[in-house]
Write a structure and sequence with these properties.
This protein is of the alpha/beta class. The protein contains 14 helices and 12 strands. A hairpin with a 2-residue loop joins strand 10 and strand 11. The chain binds pyridoxal-5'-phosphate (PLP).
Length: about 475
């Protein structure tokens, strides 16, 4: 028994022959095999990027390697072959024609930070598991709240995606309204608000009609009179409302609700204002683009997703709150198995997630790589591409949906919903054959083709080609 235990503890598990990759990095000497492995993996990734233009954004369906682990584990060559197969079947956001979704090419510094993040394997659960990274996250949130113009009491926490940031915001808002135990509590948002809010109210155990939607105007912005009217009606019905959610960048068209007016209404009614700025929030980071989210500083909480236009690798989302103390009030339970936090609070005490990776590393490193000028250039470039494409589209024959951001959607005028669906299927396919990928959302009962212009590789020639094909498609369906 003791001999077997001694043999087991004698070293890291030696699963493969001595010349192959050790399963864990050696803690006492430099490991050239590990270095060679990481270099080869990096080389394959670089080759994947280098061939992006030849392949198109959407690969043909590819074969997958075996999923189950083999008995003895794979050699380095076998591992690399498996990895290559999966990479061959991956969506390629770096293709200049990748214009369908809010998933831009990844920043190179962010890629490196993701690798380091995995290597460090720290845990934002508690400070002693991530000393420098917990501090970095706090400081990064502070930088964001300053840029957004939030008060000095403000702070934030990183979350694995905007849906989670929105859910946390709703939990905090409900707690501040002291409505945790009232399943009749209501949230108001526009009809174009993101469906993560519907999920949030569902998991919060609220009534089926807890998310009440308000119509939007011709520009896709929440109708203020309808919002005020709905608030009044809720009062009359005795239904408590714990939050109004304004959207700064709707998923359908990039519309931004009138934030300042909504903030004034919420202040008058003493209702929490959450701004879902998952798409539009980053535009506040550059002075030249900040006007598109004017009034955002008056929010009680904000969701912002740097994983979208800025190209921070997924996932990267922040929940910012005007009063940092509200996060702990909602989420702190005490962590009796940890040393007390030496900073403000353990990461898991100010958010819903427990164990989580240090996603802040790729956000911080990516922003440091871009610099102020790089951030500005990315944001302005996205807006300029949208304006350019908009000018090329035949507005007399398309219904065009857009807003102040980098999204635009269109569908032919004068055809019915079934024809619009047929048009969208056929045209998307034709565009894909030209390596231009757009999305095909169903919006207000009709199919549109939507273009998201956050890809910095997209040139005006690509947009000319796209506009020509879209305008030509009208000939068949008019
Ligand atoms: C406006 C808006 N809010 C929230 C989300 C949810 O973000 P995530 O997909 O990171 O959960 C999205 C996603 O696109 C969005 O567009």
């Amino acid at each position: 028994m003791e001999t077997a235990l001694r043999a087991l503890l004698a070293g890291t598990p030696q699963i493969r022959p001595a010349d192959s990759l050790a399963p864990f990095a050696k803690p006492d000497c430099f490991d050239p095999q590990l270095q060679a492995f990481l270099e080869e993996v990096s080389a394959r990734l670089c080759a994947w990027f280098a061939t992006a233009s030849n392949r198109g954004p959407l690969p043909a369906l590819s074969a997958l390697p075996d999923v189950a682990p083999s008995t003895h584990g794979l050699s380095v060559d076998e591992l690399l072959d498996d990895l290559q197969l999966v990479m061959e079947g991956a969506y390629q956001p770096s293709h200049p024609g990748a214009l369908a979704h809010l998933d831009p090419p990844p920043l190179t510094a962010s890629i490196a930070a993701d690798l380091i993040c995995a290597g460090l394997n720290n845990n934002l659960l508690a400070e002693e598991l991530s000393p420098s990274l917990s501090l970095l996250e706090r400081q990064m949130c502070r930088w964001f709240v300053e840029r957004f113009g939030l008060p000095s009491t403000a702070g934030g926490v990183a979350a694995s995606g905007g849906s989670l940031s929105n859910l946390m915001a709703m939990v905090v808002a409900r707690q501040q309204a002291d409505l945790q135990h009232d399943p009749r509590a209501v949230v108001l948002a526009s009809v174009d608000a993101h469906m993560s809010l519907a999920k949030a109210v569902r998991v919060m155990g609220l009534a089926a009609d807890a998310l009440q939607v308000v119509p939007v105007d011709r520009d896709g912005c929440i109708e203020i009179d309808a919002l005020a009217h709905r608030l009044k009606a809720l009062k009359a019905e005795g239904r408590p409302c714990f939050a109004v959610v304004a959207t700064a960048g709707t998923t359908a068209r990039g519309a931004v609700d009138p934030l300042r007016t909504i903030a004034e209404l919420c202040a008058r009614e003493r209702i929490w204002l959450h701004v879902d700025a998952a798409i539009g929030g980053v535009f506040a980071l550059a002075a030249t683009t900040a006007s598109v989210v004017e009034g955002i500083a008056q929010a009680d909480s904000i969701t912002v997703n740097p994983q979208k236009v800025l190209g921070i690798t997924k996932t990267s989302s922040l929940l910012l709150v005007a009063n940092q103390g509200h996060l702990a009030a909602a989420f702190s339970t005490g962590l009796p198995y940890m040393e007390p936090a030496w900073g403000e609070a353990h990461g898991s005490e100010i958010g819903l997630q427990g164990t989580r990776p240090a996603e802040v590393l790729k956000l911080w490193f990516g922003l440091r790589q871009l610099g102020e000028l790089g951030i500005k250039r990315l944001l302005e470039g996205a807006l300029q591409r949208r304006c350019y494409l908009q000018r090329q589209l035949d507005a007399s024959r398309f219904t065009i949906l857009t807003g102040p951001l980098h999204l635009i959607a269109c569908t032919p005028r004068n055809i019915d919903a079934a024809q619009a669906e047929a048009w969208s299927v056929a045209t998307r396919q034709r565009l894909l054959e030209q390596q231009l990928m757009v999305s095909r959302p169903l919006h207000q009962g009709r199919h549109f083709l939507k273009v998201v212009l956050g890809n910095p590789h997209t040139q005006l020639t690509h947009l000319d080609q796209l506009a020509t094909l879209l305008n030509q498609s009208l000939l068949e369906f008019s």
